[in-house]
Amino acid sequence: MLLSVIVPCYNEEENIALFYSELLKNNEFFKSKDLDIEVIYVDDGSTDNTVIEVKKLRESDERVKLISFSRNFGKESAIYAGFKKAKGDYAVMLDADLQDPPSLLPEMFSYIEEGYDSVATRRVNRKGEPPIRSFFARRFYKLMNKFSNTDIVDGARDYRLMTRQVVDAILSLGEYNRFSKGIFGWVGFKTKWVEFENVERAKGETKWSFWGLFLYSLEGIIAFSTAPLAIASCLGVLFCLLAFVLIIFILVRSLFWTDPTSGWQSMVCIISLVSGVQLLCLGILGQYLSKTYLEVKNRPKYLVKEEL
Ligand code: UDP
Ligand code: MG
């Protein structure tokens, strides 16, 4: 049996070898289960020595593989590329910064043996993370679960071990705007959740800015829910009803009473409000349209510069 270990890397030169030695601490376990491994480092257009570090590892160990992108395409593309290349009967995906502890693998594998198709992980706390980031992350998961039919677990990591069947299912979703947490939920299968305490990254800095995360969360909502569109339609209906009531009120008033030109201030307020709501709804529509536009262009999700 072969286990494919997929590691997306973006400027992780200090973590490549560290991750590898950490993974190999499971050697005894791999042997006892008769598991061969292949470690696929997906270099997401790093500008540092990530590629050189991977090549160094490969010199001494043929099981190390490399896919190097022509530029930074984002973690989601890196994950997809890794799955595509994986030949294993099982595949697992971990961050290079050791925030997904490889020491959990034996436990995760035991659930696969029990008959689960996929073993997912979630961290039970967000120790060491900036509080504002945790706060917005929590709000996002609440909102997401309200809006979409796909179940997205708070604190879920992308760290997952799965069988070939699940990998193929994930690969069959060929969309350009990929939101893995949603995709994993969408494909279903029998999933076991393993919990662990948050671990801080081994070396280097996080690649996610606050703004980057915000855009990513929007992507998630748009990719897995059409609720914002429904809300826009409801707002439209609501404002039509309101306008209708107002029209009747004004008509009756000017038919039966005198109507001096007053109240222009309130008119300005109403016009501002309504045009604001219109622009908002147009914006929501625009978001979906832009995503559709990107899908329709059908561009490749990544471009490979080098593959070993
Ligand atoms: N990563 C990537 N491409 C990117 C950003 C990140 O492949 O554009 C990788 C990164 O090298 C790491 C993983 O995705 O292995 C998680 O990134 P990071 O640790 O920066 O995110 P955080 O853990 O802070 O959410
Ligand atoms: Mg990290």
CATH topology type of the largest domain: Spore Coat Polysaccharide Biosynthesis Protein SpsA, Chain A
Shape: elongated
Question: Which structural class fits the helix and strand makeup?
Answer: alpha/beta
CATH hierarchy, class of the largest domain: Alpha Beta
What's the average pLDDT?
87
Measured between the Cα atoms of the first and last residue, the distance is 22 Å
CATH superfamily of the largest domain: Spore Coat Polysaccharide Biosynthesis Protein SpsA, Chain A
Bound small-molecule species: uridine-5'-diphosphate, magnesium ion
Whole-number count of domains: 2
Strand order of the largest sheet: 7-5-6-4-1-2-3-8
Quaternary organisation of the protein chains: single chain
Portion of residues in beta strands equals 15-25%
Number of strands: 8
Sheet having the most strands: 8 strands, mixed
Give the helices and strands as they follow along the chain. EHHEHEHEHEHEHHEHHHE
CATH architecture of the largest domain: Alpha-Beta Complex
pLDDT < 50 stretches: none
Q: Radius of gyration over alpha carbons?
A: 25 Å
